[in-house]
Amino acid sequence: MNNLSARGPAIDRRSLLASGALAAVAVSATGATDAVAQGDPEILDVIIVGAGLAGLTAARDLDRAGNNSFAVLEARDRVGGRVLNHRLAGGHFSEAGGQWIGPGQTAIADLARELEVETFDSIYDGRMVFRWGSDRVAFESDGSIEIEAGLMKRLDALAAQVPHDRPWTAPNARELDRMSIAQWLARQNVGGLDLLTMKIASVLTVGSGIGNCSMLYYLSMLNFAGGFQRLEAQKGGAQQTRFVGGSQVLADKMADELGAKVQLGTAVKAIRNWDRDIVELETTKGRLRARRIIMALSPPLCRKIAFAPALPDARRALQDRWPAHAPMCKSAMAYKRPFWFDEGYNGQILSADGPLIWAYDNSPPQQEIGVINAFLRVGEVSPDHETAKRQLTRLFAESLDDDRFLVPTEFHLHDWGQEEWSVSCVSPMPPGLLTSPLMAALDEPCGRLCWSGTETGGIWNGYMDGAVRSGRKAALETLQALRAEA
Amino acid sequence: MNNLSARGPAIDRRSLLASGALAAVAVSATGATDAVAQGDPEILDVIIVGAGLAGLTAARDLDRAGNNSFAVLEARDRVGGRVLNHRLAGGHFSEAGGQWIGPGQTAIADLARELEVETFDSIYDGRMVFRWGSDRVAFESDGSIEIEAGLMKRLDALAAQVPHDRPWTAPNARELDRMSIAQWLARQNVGGLDLLTMKIASVLTVGSGIGNCSMLYYLSMLNFAGGFQRLEAQKGGAQQTRFVGGSQVLADKMADELGAKVQLGTAVKAIRNWDRDIVELETTKGRLRARRIIMALSPPLCRKIAFAPALPDARRALQDRWPAHAPMCKSAMAYKRPFWFDEGYNGQILSADGPLIWAYDNSPPQQEIGVINAFLRVGEVSPDHETAKRQLTRLFAESLDDDRFLVPTEFHLHDWGQEEWSVSCVSPMPPGLLTSPLMAALDEPCGRLCWSGTETGGIWNGYMDGAVRSGRKAALETLQALRAEA
């Protein structure tokens, strides 16, 4: 769990700058909090809460618009939110959070283009291993996901009828939302390898077992992706393409451009007067005031903030019911070389049980070192770093018959469920929530608060792409709101 | 030249709506023009001049921001600007203007994703014909452009040193800008087939012969594209991917969303008081007033508008020197089937002289009909429709030894140099302009005027992608400007 940040010296520099900037706008803790006239230099136009991809994109657009009166507050001592580069020796990285993009994820692709971050394709051709119980088989993979053709056709046909931005309008929306993925699969008499595959796909894609997630929600994801392979596969799917330098480089580059406007280590404790002209934020580094607030964080994370007056009932209920603490844990094992390619393996293991869900090659583009990343079952992997390392390296050595896996040069483990400032990773929407009237509160502004974050992205919600979309939209809406009230 | 518009009934509906909307905001021609108080319903927040991709994207973003106080004025009776679908029988289309996207054109790819416009790849594998004088050769093409490896390497290395958004800062910028592409090629002793290829590439990509375009400008294009193949090739290049329904569908969809806010057949004749709080526009349909103007049209097209007070000297000089009337003419020949594929041809002819520059397959994605598009040399092709048709169909029949080319089901010709409201297609920047101080006037706002259009895109200037970027930026800057002055 050490070495969470890949930013190193850059953080120190920014922290220094930030503390100066903060002092300039902070209101004395004992000072008056009355609304003051527009033009007061201590009142910012916009405060953005959260320096993940959504908040930073919103900030970048405010900056591009020419607005100079904003700050981004970030509770952590790093930017990126659920996007995080583990720093490896030799200047390499391995992503502990969101990392891939694929076809149709055009908003983040465009951001990367503008930031001049290059992409490269994941390596997925080769022999991979599928494990269940004490059995295992090795087979040749081309990066697509094998399920029975009829099942895939039924999923895709059903998904085509579920508009991702308003799934509650789909035919039989209520029925599909009452059902878990597991219940739908059972009705379709799906069993055997297909059921195992769907179980693994579900836990990786929606962040929960097939019994906990609404079928309607899964269909809405298939809809925005454009079908099963587009959502679940590497080849031609959402796990196809990686960023040179690791995905966090996008956040780092935006933060570097924004300089002192990004204030790290600044947690928002309370938001007062959000229904009035001037909103007051109480943070761990003092009080700040602004005309508009962009809330660039997930709904459950908003629970950590005390709102006065209280938020509307529907918004509070939505935040309470939104899935949080969905366990998602990733590991990275580094080796001197990606020697598994020499043996014809692609570095992948899929496992129906035990600590490992899915492991895959995550070596840098030039393969100067070898890296295997893995998604893990939180309850099955040891929370102890050394024990977990032994569990996973042995599992690899055994599955691929190669003792070289036993001695990684580095091993990292990251449990997102334990993160104070993320609460969770993706959002396994429980049955019933998507068709409840509470969903209207997801992006309905409350007074001066504009709700952002990947959950509000409209397309590719829950993905980096959705975060970028939500940030762009928040910037536009907030600029217009400032204009309208002026 | 007939059937310029693919919109048909949609235009009539919009025109009706537009005339109503126009009446609601138009100021009587004899009425007072004094600036009035903010809040006057007759004063719009924003008027966007030009309903090409730039103007429509800006309008779409204002709309998404929640701004309701804007109009898009378009001189033509259609939207799309330099993007135009020729309507073919059977509901098919063939593009007469900008039509492809490729790697790195992420802004337009993202717009297409949001508008749910699908893409498909051009067909380029197969035998093609190269003609010069009375000679011709057929060879197998894979969609890349063949030039000598050393030449390509030198071009790419030089381009890597020319920042596309500030080419005047490149090493030897002045020297490279004084030189035409032809002069640079001569210094490199490029001759033979390479010189022919560069001549054809130049006229297609920059819209002029190699003698008329600045080498620095060409290098800046190679820079934003990411290299020679990325700029010039079909496979992996800027001519790789097409839009289902034709590229104009992007403009049509945005216009449909904007409804009566797009006012067709409304040419702006004069812009007064652009240096004051309320700007007045005199149009062919009456006077309009707004606080901010987005000028979403090319620099030379701005010459058609009378500005009072006169624009700053540098801006006027830039508009005067900007390349206009660069001849670019496209034809479309339709057939019952793309029979050329049966014979192993990809439908392409490259010609170093004569009326044809480059012809290529432009059939619809399902190939229900066959279409050959061609870029033509304006001075060499007959301006008479029937004669031009005979010239081109004979050239094809002869080059591909197939008399079926002689009897197309349809033939269209479109000369962009003759367009009243485009003036030109792409911008072959003459030597010296890019390093002149005038370039600062390209996007430097003048009073309440924000300059937009693909020429200001920053990345992929001159392409559809640059237009989208420029529109997005104009919306952000204009919203902020409204906020700042309020």
From TrEMBL, chains A, B:
- What keywords does the record list, in alphabetical order? Oxidoreductase
Database matches in Gene3D superfamilies: 3.90.660.10, FAD/NAD(P)-binding domain (3.50.50.60), Guanine Nucleotide Dissociation Inhibitor, domain 1 (1.10.405.10)
The keyword Oxidoreductase belongs to this UniProt entry's keyword annotation? yes
Query: PROSITE patterns per the record?
Result: TAT
Q: Which organism is it from?
A: Erythrobacter aureus
Q: Which residues form the Amine oxidase domain?
A: 53-475
Q: Superkingdom of this entry's organism?
A: Bacteria
The protein's required cofactor(s) are namely: FAD
UniProt protein name: FAD-dependent oxidoreductase
One MF term in the entry's GO annotations: oxidoreductase activity
Positions bound to FAD: E74, A75, V268, E455
What the record says about family reads: Belongs to the flavin monoamine oxidase family.
Which residues are recorded as binding substrate?
A: F375
